[in-house]
Specification:
Number of domains: 1
Order of helices and strands: HH
Radius of gyration: 9 Å
Structural class: mainly alpha
Number of helices: 2
Distance between the termini: 14 Å
Helix content: over 70%
Keywords: Signal
Shape: flat
Oligomer: single chain
């Protein structure tokens, strides 16, 4: 749903501030949970 995608984007963006390099891997991980 749109909400799930928004949460996924927000989480991946937040994590990116801590680990810019692994943003893709982490975002994929959360998106597919």
């Amino acid at each position: 749903s749109a909400i799930s995608l928004f949460v996924c984007f927000f989480v991946s963006s937040s994590v990116a501030t801590l680990c810019h390099y692994c943003q893709s891997a982490i975002s994929l991980f959360f998106c597919f949970l």
